[in-house]
Amino acid sequence: MVTISLCMIVKNEEDTIGRCLDSVKDIVDEINIVDTGSTDQTKEVLRRYTQRIYDFEWVHDFAKARNYAFQQATKDFILWLDADDVFLPKDQEKFNELKMNLDLTTDSVTMDYNLSTDQHGNVLTSLKRNRLVKRTNHFQWIGAVHEYLEVAGTIFHSNVAVTHKSLHHDTNRNLLIYEKQLANNVEFSARDLFYFANELKDHQMYERAIEYYEKFLLTEKGWVEDNISACSRLADCFFSLGDYKKELESILRSFQYDHPRSEFCCRLGFYFLKKKELYAAIFWYQLATEIKLPSHNLGLQYPKYATWLPHLQLCVCYDQLGQHKLANEHNEKARQYNPDDPRILQNKKYLESILLKQTKRK
């Protein structure tokens, strides 16, 4: 059985780090924590789990801090987490099974990263991350902000998931790092342009965000998933600015990078639904239901756009056309995925009443 070192960087995480380490302490062989300047009780909490605690002067560069953390590992593989991540009990079991069977010739293991869930635990947003890597490969983190782990070789796609459970975060930290780099005339890579644009959008600075998304796409050096995401976020910016023509153009622009994704089909469906062009809306919503989510795609995944949401919207379309039987069929399909959604339950009550009246008339 392989051995595993956990390597983390933290700062002022007293509220979350215990929860994280409780979920992982029994499935790893070593815990290494690099503290980048905590002023709260983080270190006191850490000492309950490990004595391998290291200080690292914060230099506004996440990659440098993570690489230092990786240097402390001594086991076969390195696992990395953030303080607000956890392994749910079912994933702890899957992790132990993975650990028992993992081949030492494997260079990296991907795991799902569930970023958000609904009240029932259904995943709303997820992506895959290279989460467990062979120590002797000396893989490096790259990027001062929104850093990524550059890996190569044999990659195994596991069924283990890490769940993100954020309580709080510094909403201005990343933006300020980028703004400081910009002021110092640091040359942005294509990836930097993309993530800087994301920060601008998240801070509702839509005009500047549009400028940097355009700069990013014009480099033609972006990862395909980031290109597609940039189109989606451009559409969001134009929608917020009330420029619906540009919003539509941004949605359609995504098609040059890959086949239509379900989330874009739903956006087009909504665009035509607002215009009361119901058959066009139906076409796009129906297409969304037929697109399967890729199993090994490292980009963001939005399951609702391929499952219950398009069926709910097809219910709305068919109801407006007076085709209540079809509306009910799609509402029931939506209910299979999302049984407690109040909108779906209200539709069920409304449509069953109409269908019952129609039956009685016969």
UniProtKB/TrEMBL annotation:
GO terms for molecular function: glycosyltransferase activity. InterPro entries: Glyco_trans_2-like, Nucleotide-diphossugar_trans, TPR-like_helical_dom_sf, TPR_rpt. Residues 5-95 form the Glycosyltransferase 2-like domain. Its EC number is 2.4.-.-. Keywords: Glycosyltransferase, Transferase. The keyword Transferase applies. This is Glycosyltransferase family 2 protein. It comes from Sporosarcina thermotolerans. The lineage of its organism: Bacteria, Bacillati, Bacillota, Bacilli, Bacillales.
